[in-house]
Design goal:
single chain, 716 residues, binds pyridoxal-5'-phosphate
Length: 716
C-alpha cells in the first residue's frame, strides 16, 4: 500500500498549487488528471487562461500553469467566473474519483493490467503513433468512466513519436521533439527510500534500470517505464527514446522492457493484476515473465505456463506482416540471452512458445505467436478481422479447422466524449434526453434521433464544417509558408476552402495497403470533380513511417497533384497528422473516405469518430465498415465498395478507384446538393441520422469495454 504513486501525484499537485495564486489551486488538481480533456468545459477552462500559450504548450495544462506569465495568472485569479468553474470541475473530479468501483467482473484488488507499446491519451502526451495507441487511450478512458478496476502499462518515450514536415517537393522529413516528462502531467513513483522506485532486468547482457511514471487518466493510472536513468549507459537509455525505434535490437529491448519490466513494475508497486491484457504482440514478453515468476517458485514449466495463460488475454490488431514482428534466435539471444540463462532448463520451451513449429530451432520467434500461445483468450478487432486472423494463424493449431481456431473478436469502438465535437454533443443532449451518454450502447437511447428536426441536424453539420474550414485556412497558410511555397500558392489558401462545399476527408498512415494513391489514379476524374458546377473540396493528412521510402514516394506523388488547376484552393494536405488534426478532420468533414486493400484493414477507427460527428463513410467493405454497413438496408448509413479479396491486386486497384469515383459522381454529390426549400438536403440528413444511430449504438468504447467484460475478462 502506498507504493503505487498515488501519493506522489498528490504531492505533484500540491507543488504546482503552491506556485500559482491560491484561487487557482483547483486547477492544479485538474491539470494532473487527464479527465479534464473529456469533461465538457475542461479544455475551455485552461484555454481561457491564455489561449496562445495553451496552444504553444500543446495543450499541456501543467506546462501552461508553469509557464504562463504571472500577470496572466493573477488576471485569471481575479476572474470570478473562471475560478468558479475551476472549483466546480475539481469538485466533479473528486466526486468521480470517490465513487465505488464496478467490481462485478473485475475485482477491485486485482485489476486488469492493460499493456501496450503506445497510448493516445491526449496530444500533450506524445507516446502514441496512430490507431493502436488512440484505441488504447480510449479503452483507459472508458474503463475510467465505467469505474472498472484497470491500470495501463506502457513506456515513457523521451522523444515520443516523430513529426512530419514536407519540403516544397513533397518529400517527407521526420523530426522528434523532446517530450520533457518533468513538465508533463506525470509523476515519478517513489520507492521505500523516497527516491524513484525502479525495476531492473538484464537486456543485451547488461542490467537495465527503469523508473516508473504515473499519469492519471480519470480513475485509471497509467504507468510508464523509462530507461532514462543515471545507472544506464547511453545505449540503454536510448531504449525509451523513440516509439518503435528503427533498429531491431533496440526495438526488441523496448519490448523486453515493456513486457517483462512492466510485470516487474506492477509487482514492485504491489499491484496484483487479475487479468494481464497483452494488447498487440509488442507486449507479449509479459507472458514470459509471468511464467518465470511461477516456475521459479517451484511450479514445473507446464504448470507455470497453464497458470500464466489463465491470467492472460491477448488482442491482435493487424494482419499486415510488418505489424506481426518476428525475431531470429540470435537476435533474441542477444537481447534476452541472460534472462533465459537465469531461467535455466526452460529456455527451449519458452522459445518454442513463440515459434509456429515449437520444436524447430530454426523458426523465428513471433511476437503474435507468443501472445496467442500464452493466453487464455485471444481476439481480433472486428468480425471480419476475426475470420482473417483464424485463417492466418491456423498453422498454430494443427488439427483444428479454420472455424475452430480459438481466436474470437471484439470489435473496436471509440471514446464518445473524446471524439464527439461539442456542437454535436449539445444537439444530442437537447434531444436524446438527459444522461444519454450514460449508456450510448443502448439502442433505445438513439430512437429519438429521428425526431430531431432535419434543419437542426443540418445546421450542426454546417457549423462543424465551417469550423474546420476556418482552422484549415490558417493551418494551410502556415504549412505553405513554412515550406517556402510560391506566394500565389500561399495566398490561395487564405481565401481557399469553402464553408459550403462538400468536404471529403481522407487521413491515413501512408502505408501501402491504405492505398492513399487510389485518389489520384484517375487524374482526369480528380480534375473534373474539383471543377464541376458543385463545389467539392478534399482534406488529406497522413504520415509515412520514417524508414519507409516507398511510402514517402507515394506521398510525394500525391503531393504533385498541387499543380493541377484548382487544387491549390480545393485540396489541403495537412501536415503532421496527430490527435488534434484528427479531431478537426473527423468533426468537420461530410464524407470520410477509406480505401484499404481488403482484407488488410483489421478495423479502422477514424471512420467511427467521423460517424459520431455526423459524417458519412464511403469505404471499402473491410474492417469495421463490413460490420456496420448493410448494402441492402432501406436506410443506408453511408456507401460501401465491394470488399472481396482481390485475386489480382493491380487490376483490383483500378476497379476500386473506378467504383469510388462512380459513387462520388452518381450518388454522393447529387444527394449532398439536393436541397429542399429551406436549403436542407433531406436525403443526406436521413443518412446522417442512420449513421449516427449505428455508430453511436454499436461502435463506441462503451460497447467495446462491455464486450471485453462479457468475454475475455470474465474468469468464470
Ligand atoms: C483514430 C486515429 C487513427 C486511426 O485511424 P484509422 O481509421 O485506423 O486509419 C490514426 N491516427 C490518429 C491520430 C487517430 O486519431
Amino acid at each position: 500500500v502506498g507504493r503505487d504513486g498515488a501519493e506522489d501525484v498528490a504531492r505533484s499537485v500540491a507543488e504546482l498549487a503552491a506556485r500559482i495564486p491560491d484561487q487557482l489551486a483547483p486547477l492544479a488538481r485538474l491539470a494532473f488528471n487527464y479527465r479534464w480533456s473529456w469533461t465538457p468545459g475542461g479544455p475551455e477552462l485552461f484555454r481561457g487562461i491564455d489561449p496562445d500559450r495553451f496552444a504553444l504548450c500543446r495543450e499541456n495544462p501543467v506546462r501552461l500553469l508553469l509557464e504562463a506569465h504571472p500577470g496572466r495568472l493573477q488576471e485569471a485569479a481575479r476572474d470570478g467566473g473562471l475560478v468558479h468553474r475551476a472549483g466546480q470541475l475539481a469538485a466533479a473530479l473528486d466526486a468521480e474519483l470517490a465513487r465505488p468501483p464496478d467490481d462485478e467482473v473485475v475485482a477491485a484488488d486485482s485489476p486488469v493490467a492493460f499493456l501496450c507499446a503506445e497510448f493516445g491519451i491526449h496530444e500533450s502526451l506524445p507516446i502514441y503513433s496512430g490507431g493502436l495507441g488512440v484505441l488504447a487511450g480510449d479503452i483507459l478512458k472508458e474503463a475510467s468512466d465505467r469505474r472498472i478496476p484497470f491500470v495501463g502499462v506502457g513506456l515513457m518515450y523521451a522523444n515520443g513519436q516523430f513529426h512530419q514536415r514536407l519540403d516544397p517537393y513533397g518529400w517527407q522529413h521526420d523530426y522528434w521533439i523532446p517530450s520533457d516528462p518533468e513538465r508533463l502531467p506525470a509523476t515519478l513513483v517513489t520507492g521505500d527510500g523516497g527516491g524513484p522506485l525502479t525495476v531492473t532486468l538484464p537486456i543485451r547482457g547488461r542490467d537495465v534500470v527503469a523508473q516508473v511514471w504515473r499519469v492519471a487518466v480519470g480513475r485509471v493510472p497509467l504507468f510508464l517505464l523509462d530507461a532514462n536513468r543515471p545507472e544506464n549507459g547511453i545505449l540503454d537509455r536510448w531504449i525509451t527514446s523513440r516509439l518503435y525505434v528503427g533498429d531491431r535490437t533496440t526495438r526488441l529491448a523496448q519490448y523486453a522492457l515493456l513486457g517483462i519490466g512492466g510485470i516487474r513494475a506492477l509487482r514492485a508497486m504491489g499491484i496484483d493484476a487479475g487479468v494481464v491484457h497483452v494488447n498487440e504482440g509488442h507486449a507479449a514478453f509479459a507472458t514470459l515473465e509471468l511464467i518465470r515468476e511461477l516456475a521459479t517458485v517451484g511450479d514445473g514449466f507446464g504448470e507455470a505456463l497453464e497458470e500464466a495463460r489463465s491470467r492472460t488475454v491477448f488482442t491482435t490488431h493487424t494482419p499486415v506482416a510488418a505489424g506481426n514482428e518476428s525475431y531470429q534466435l540470435d537476435e533474441v539471444d542477444g537481447v534476452l540471452g541472460k534472462l533465459f540463462a537465469e531461467m535455466g532448463a526452460e529456455r527451449e520451451q519458452l522459445l518454442g512458445l513463440g515459434r509456429i513449429r515449437p520444436d524447430d530451432p530454426g523458426d523465428a520467434l513471433g511476437m503474435t505467436v507468443l501472445g496467442l500461445r500464452a493466453s487464455r483468450s485471444a481476439n481480433a478487432v472486428s468480425r471480419r478481422h476475426g475470420e482473417v486472423a483464424r485463417s492466418m494463424w491456423q498453422p498454430l493449431y494443427p488439427g483444428a479447422s479454420e472455424a475452430d481456431v480459438p481466436i474470437g473478436h471484439v470489435t473496436n469502438g471509440v471514446h464518445l466524449p473524446t471524439w464527439m465535437a461539442t456542437p454535436m454533443r449539445r444537439l444530442l443532449d437537447r434531444h436524446l434526453g438527459r444522461d444519454w451518454t450514460e449508456n450510448p450502447g443502448d439502442p433505445r437511447a438513439w430512437e429519438r434521433i429521428d425526431d430531431i428536426p432535419d434543419q437542426e441536424v443540418w445546421e450542426t453539420r454546417c457549423r462543424l464544417r465551417a469550423e474546420l474550414v476556418a482552422w484549415l485556412r490558417e493551418r494551410a497558410v502556415m504549412d505553405r509558408l513554412a515550406r517556402e511555397e510560391p506566394s500565389s500558392y500561399v495566398e490561395a489558401a487564405i481565401e481557399a476552402f469553402d464553408p459550403d462545399a462538400l468536404t471529403l476527408g481522407f487521413a491515413r498512415r501512408v502505408a501501402a495497403y491504405k492505398r492513399l494513391d487510389l485518389l489520384i489514379r484517375e487524374p482526369e476524374r480528380v480534375a473534373a470533380l474539383l471543377s464541376g458546377p458543385e463545389p467539392v473540396q478534399v482534406v488529406l493528412a497522413g504520415k509515412a513511417h520514417p524508414q519507409d521510402d516507398e511510402a514517402k514516394r507515394r506521398l510525394q506523388h500525391l503531393f504533385e497533384m498541387k499543380w493541377t488547376p484548382r487544387v491549390g484552393s480545393r485540396v489541403a494536405y495537412v501536415e503532421d497528422y496527430d490527435m488534434t488534426v484528427a479531431a478537426h478532420l473527423v468533426s468537420g468533414c461530410d464524407v470520410w473516405i477509406n480505401l484499404p486493400r481488403p482484407p488488410l484493414e483489421a478495423s479502422g477507427t477514424s471512420g467511427m469518430k467521423a460517424g459520431l460527428n455526423g459524417a458519412l463513410n464511403l469505404s471499402i467493405l473491410d474492417g469495421w465498415w463490413a460490420e456496420a454497413f448493410d448494402p441492402q438496408s432501406e436506410r443506408p448509413s453511408g456507401w460501401g465498395i465491394d470488399g472481396s479479396e482481390p485475386a489480382d491486386p493491380e487490376r483490383e486497384d483500378q476497379r476500386d478507384a473506378a467504383a469510388f469515383y462512380d459513387l462520388l459522381e452518381r450518388e454522393v454529390i447529387p444527394l449532398f446538393f439536393d436541397r429542399d426549400e429551406h436549403g436542407v438536403p433531406t436525403g443526406w440528413v436521413q443518412r446522417m441520422k442512420a449513421s449516427l444511430r449505428t455508430v453511436g449504438s454499436q461502435f463506441t468504447a462503451t460497447r467495446m469495454v462491455r464486450d471485453y467484460l462479457a468475454g475475455p475478462y470474465r474468469t468464470d
